[in-house]
Automatic annotation (TrEMBL):
The keyword Glycosyltransferase does not apply. It comes from the Bacteria. GO terms for molecular function: ATP binding; ATP hydrolysis activity. It comes from Neptuniibacter caesariensis. Residues 530-558, 615-640 are annotated as: Disordered. Keywords: ATP-binding, Nucleotide-binding, Repeat. Residues 2-246, 310-527 form the ABC transporter domain. SMART domains: AAA. Gene3D superfamilies: P-loop containing nucleotide triphosphate hydrolases (3.40.50.300). This is Probable ATP-binding protein YheS. It holds the Pfam family ABC_tran.
Length: 640
């Protein structure tokens, strides 16, 4: 049992908790929710002993084994498998003691240590670690790669795997589904449901919370309020309390009307798609949960372009991918206003490739792509957060898009995204990941697209912004293409699914539960194929002659030699990207100087902005080439 008794906690000038009480029991799975800055991460630090109560007491059981997911991104030389195994500190300690005993030829001590290793399930440790990595989307080849070879998002997955590997009585996870795709999110959900200890989970994924936790702790008004059930149950219970605030409740009726209008248009298709029924069920509980969001500062919309054509965009018999390798073959897709499509498919199957092809960032290997003269694309992807001008404010970002727009008009618009007062004038570099995502969303919404492509838009967004995004997408009148691991967002914004798998794009006739079953079947088929492949080699090897085995080794060595030039090319491209980023930093530092915007420096400003645009274009082209080379390298490694 964990008990907070009259706990007060202050960080700087902010009083986060004031005489807060909370009792959590063994075996509970608790979702910790609350507004950004309310103190959720500080509660974790209190439990881990990194912070101490200013007043009151926090009681933890003696000998409590705590595992938590590290947020820092390592650059270790260790292999992915070893890095995950390092999460089990006791295992590593026993293994080191075994090495010492072997060196000392202490056979008696060695026998004791092997018995200890057996009781710790140490002999199955590598297998368990490999299963964790596979569940989180790592391939068999990835297991032996060094940590430093992985991108930031994949290193965070390694941190998660390491936390799961650590034997624990209490597991603390902070936003574990960020940087996971839908497949890995579903796997993690199943793993956590079977976890025997106490789980405290910070997450902004409501479906994930609903499917994992038994209780919700809401950090609000400096208190820790406990609710029984998942996030939806919490929402309803909180709504019952807030519904008494009639004025606040009326504020929500306009939003409910928008959803009713949407479902009214959609109901005609209810006999054809399971998604329709889930949307209607969402409406049925909308009036109950609406008051739970009365204090949300977010109320934005995606207004479609006034000019609309049908079709807006067409792909015909298109091979999508890169110059030397098509990822998707013979893809035909016609997008007309009103279509709402969710993309499903395993990690690496080509969902992002399809999105980039639709955007126009990737050219076709073959086939046709035709866009209407009125096509206006809005594209959200994680790399666009990095492309923001860190020295510029949200207002300046919009001003650069529409120089003639008045400051008051832009301020009013940014207020719907939660940027009020001076916050709209602050440099983006001081913003959190969620705030940067809101800036990127506001830039898209301002330009009134009629084709909206969103690749994992909810990463870094809290529950209130996700709720506002769901409502905004429901009323968008153009074409929506969505890739997301947030099932609540998918379930309540798209009308149909396309499955991207095995080099093809096809209609998926089912809902997200059917997709989960499809994933399980794919996994079973892969296991059967692996078992069959494992059974054959011994027979095949016996029948190979010495000359044939020698030829096999020669071919393997030849393929390894093919990797060398690709790796050198990647190193050169990485150096070039670093140079471009350094130059961009210098340009952005120049743009952060207020004097450059004076009339006398008009020509200099123009030249610097031109230089910034050229550098960004060169950086993007270099990054694109790096991605092509990386995919080619991974494909070749898979053949070895």
């Amino acid at each position: 049992m964990i008990q907070f008794q009259q706990v007060s906690l202050q960080r700087g000038h902010n009083l986060l908790l004031e005489q807060a009480d909370l009792t959590l029991h063994s075996g509970w799975k608790i979702g910790l929710v609350g507004a950004n800055g309310a103190g959720k991460s500080s509660v974790f630090k209190l439990i881990m002993g990194e912070l101490h109560c200013d007043n009151g007491d926090l009681d933890l059981p003696g000998g409590l084994r705590i595992s938590h997911m590290a947020q820092e991104v390592p650059t270790s030389e260790r292999t992915a498998l070893d890095y995950v195994l390092d999460g089990d500190h006791q295992l590593r300690q026993i293994q080191q003691q075994i090495s010492d005993a072997e060196a000392a030829h202490d056979m008696h001590r060695l026998g004791e240590l092997h018995a200890e290793l057996d009781s710790h399930n140490g002999y199955s440790a590598e297998s368990r670690a490999a299963q964790l990595l596979a569940g989180l989307g790592f391939s068999h080849q990835d297991i032996s790669r060094s940590v430093k070879e992985f991108s930031g998002g994949w290193r965070i997955r390694l941190n998660l795997a390491q936390a799961l590997m650590c034997p624990s009585d209490l597991l603390l996870l902070d936003e574990p589904t960020n940087h996971l795709d839908l497949d890995a999110t579903i796997w993690l959900e199943q793993w956590l449901r079977q976890y025997p200890g106490m789980l405290i989970l910070i997450s902004h994924d409501r479906d994930f919370l609903d499917n994992v936790v038994s209780h919700i702790t809401h950090v609000e008004h400096k208190k820790l309020n406990l609710y029984k059930g998942g996030y939806s149950a919490f929402e309803l219970q909180r709504a019952d309390r807030l519904a008494q605030q009639q004025a606040a409740f009326e504020k929500q009726q306009q939003r409910i009307g928008e959803i009713e209008d949407f479902v009214r248009r959609f109901r005609a298709k209810a006999t054809k798609a399971k998604q329709a029924q889930s949307r209607i069920k969402e409406l049925e509980r909308m009036e109950k949960i609406a008051p739970a969001h009365v204090d949300s500062p977010f109320s934005f919309h995606f207004r479609a372009s006034d000019k609309m054509s049908s079709p807006l965009l067409t792909l015909y018999q298109a091979d999508c991918g890169y110059t030397d390798k098509a990822i998707l073959n013979k893809t035909s897709l016609t997008l007309v206003p009103g279509m709402r499509i969710g993309l499903l498919g395993p990690n690496g199957a080509g969902k992002s490739t399809l999105v980039k092809t639709l955007v126009g960032d990737l050219g076709l290997c073959s086939g046709d792509r035709h866009e209407s003269e009125n096509l206006q694309i809005g594209y959200f992807a994680q790399h666009q957060l990095e492309a923001l001008d860190m020295a510029a404010s949200p207002l300046l970002h919009i001003k650069r898009i529409s120089p003639k727009a008045s400051e008051q008009e832009i301020r009013d618009f940014l207020g719907s995204f939660g940027f009020f007062g001076d916050r709209a004038l602050e440099p983006v570099e001081n913003f959190s990941g969620g705030e940067k995502a809101r800036v990127a969303l506001s830039m898209i919404a301002w330009q009134k697209p009629n084709l909206l492509l969103m690749d994992e838009p909810t990463n870094h967004l809290d529950l209130e912004v996700r709720h506002a995004l769901t409502l905004a997408l429901q009323t968008f009148e153009g074409v929506l293409i969505l890739v997301s691991h947030d099932r609540h967002l998918l379930r309540n914004t798209v009308d149909e699914f396309l499955l991207v798998a095995n080099g093809e794009v096809s209609e998926f006739k089912g809902d997200l539960d059917d997709y989960q079953n499809w994933l399980l079947e794919q996994k079973r088929e892969a296991q059967r194929a692996e078992a069959e492949a494992f059974a054959k080699p011994t027979e095949d090897k016996k029948s190979l002659s010495a000359a044939e085995r020698k030829e096999q080794k020669r071919l393997a060595a030849e393929r390894r030699n093919q990797l060398r030039p690709l790796k050198k090319k990647l190193e050169k491209l990485e150096a070039a990207m670093e140079t471009f980023h350094e130059k961009l930093s210098e340009v952005e530092e120049t743009l952060s100087d207020a004097s450059i915007y004076e009339e006398a420096n008009k020509e200099q400003l123009k030249a610097v902005l031109q230089q910034q645009a050229e550098l960004k274009q060169q950086a993007e082209q270099t990054e694109e080439e790096w991605m092509e080379q990386q995919e080619a390298l991974e494909a070749l490694e898979a053949e070895l």
